[in-house]
């Protein structure tokens, strides 16, 4: 027989975090890094992210500085854009940007023979981007890294957690070797909920 735990709606997240902390036990993450990992586990129910998350030493400070400076957040898919806490971001003056479905993006992708995710990143380099968050498309993450390496794009933090079987793990392995601030989760697992969780954790820390 299933026994449900009575709990007030406003206490569900707090209790969820308590359960995660109890079941996970001690970690080597800083408190701020753990806030990101904990929210990713909360969003997915997958404790494996405690083993796969990687943080550049300046990732948290760079992300918080970008948010507090009122910079925008670029994300690869509209589902992710809808999940980011826009109210929290707006307090600092920033906006969420996603260009993947825009007609100009579709046209650019067709003209260049690339994915819409690739084209959307290329079209966003002048949008005062502080944080790039990629949870769906490895091609978007690869394009971001290419643009940064070429000196054409300079976000403060790259959150790269694309999911899948074609170039997802490889793109994240490349990101983990970069000298600039990043947050990633190695391997095939990831996804838009993980990218959104990381952004929302940073917004709450800010």
What this model shows, in words?
With 206 residues, the chain is of the alpha/beta class. It has one domain: Cobalamin biosynthesis CobH/CbiC, precorrin-8X methylmutase (Rossmann fold), CATH 3.40.50.10230. The protein contains eleven helices and six strands. The chain has helices spanning 12-24, 31-44, 49-52, 59-68, 78-83, 86-90, 103-112, 116-122, 138-149, 168-176, 192-205, and strands spanning 53-55, 72-75, 96-97, 129-134, 157-160, 182-185. A six-stranded mixed β-sheet has the order 1-6-5-4-2-3, sandwiched between helices. Helix 9 (138-149) packs parallel to helix 10. The radius of gyration is 17 Å and the shape is globular. The termini are far apart. The model has no long low-confidence stretch (mean pLDDT 95).
């Amino acid at each position: 027989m299933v026994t449900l735990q009575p709990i007030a709606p406003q206490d569900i997240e707090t209790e969820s975090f308590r359960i995660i902390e109890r079941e996970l036990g001690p970690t080597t993450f800083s408190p701020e890094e753990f806030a990101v990992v904990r929210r990713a586990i909360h969003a997915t129910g997958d404790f494996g992210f405690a083993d796969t998350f990687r943080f550049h030493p300046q990732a948290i400070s760079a992300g918080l500085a970008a948010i507090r400076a009122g910079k925008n957040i670029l994300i690869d898919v509209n589902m992710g854009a809808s999940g980011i806490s826009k109210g929290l971001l707006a307090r600092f003056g920033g906006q969420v940007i996603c260009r993947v479905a825009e007609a100009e993006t579709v046209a650019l992708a067709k003209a260049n023979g690339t994915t819409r995710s690739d084209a959307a990143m290329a079209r966003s380099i002048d949008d005062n981007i502080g944080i790039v968050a990629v949870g769906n498309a490895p091609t978007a993450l690869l394009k971001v890294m290419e643009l940064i390496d070429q000196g054409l794009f300079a976000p403060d933090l790259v959150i790269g957690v694309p999911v899948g079987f074609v170039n997802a793990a490889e793109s994240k392995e490349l990101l983990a070797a970069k000298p600039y601030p990043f947050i990633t989760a190695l391997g095939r697992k990831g996804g838009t909920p993980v990218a959104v969780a990381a952004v929302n954790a940073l917004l709450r820390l800010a």
